[in-house]
TrEMBL record:
EC numbers: 1.5.1.3
GO cellular component annotations of the record: cytosol
Enzyme class: oxidoreductase
Protein name: Dihydrofolate reductase
Protein family per UniProt: Belongs to the dihydrofolate reductase family.
Length: 162
């Protein structure tokens, strides 16, 4: 099962200058609790924006640079989305795509996501440079929601077109 997990504003902004726009304690805790002991897949820029390797998770990092390497047993480098899909195709666990924009877009365009966990932050950021793609409401429907605080709500979407 492939799931996307993201925090996005009302205008779908998710980042600026390779940094997250917000660090909401409740959302970070939700992310940690949801992805702990799971495999997380991300692009190189997303990986490099992290404070380090996230404990208790297997990391798969996508990079077009064939020479890109990370000396850590928890990190595996892949050079195409097809390589990632080959790696996870027999997995029974929920695999989390954690960013960035390009990977989210590819997964959604190919209709590969089974679930989307989106923390909707009720603000607009006009000068963001990274955005989450628009969710196709004909393919996905909200199946759960959880209020984190007065400015953030997690919505869980499931793919109803698969």
């Amino acid at each position: 099962m492939i799931s996307l997990i993201v925090a996005a504003t009302e205008n779908n902004a998710i980042g600026k200058d390779n940094k997250m726009l917000f660090h909401i304690k409740e959302d970070l805790l939700f992310f940690k609790n949801t992805t702990i002991n799971k495999t997380i897949v991300m692009g190189r820029k997303t990986f490099e924006s992290l404070p380090g390797v996230l404990p208790f998770r297997k990391h798969i990092v996508l990079s077009r640079d064939k020479g890109y390497n990370v000396e850590n047993q928890q990190v595996e480098i892949k050079h195409s989305l097809e390589e990632v899909l080959e790696e996870i195709k027999f997995s029974k666990e929920e695999i989390f795509i954690i960013g960035g924009e390009e990977i989210y877009r590819q997964i959604l365009e190919k209709n590969l996501a089974d679930k989307i966990y989106i923390t909707r932050i009720y603000k607009t950021v006009e000068d963001a440079d990274t955005f989450f793609p628009k969710i196709d409401e004909e393919k996905f429907q909200i199946v759960d929601k959880k209020v984190l605080n007065k400015e953030a709500i997690v919505y869980v979407y499931e793919n109803i077109s698969k």
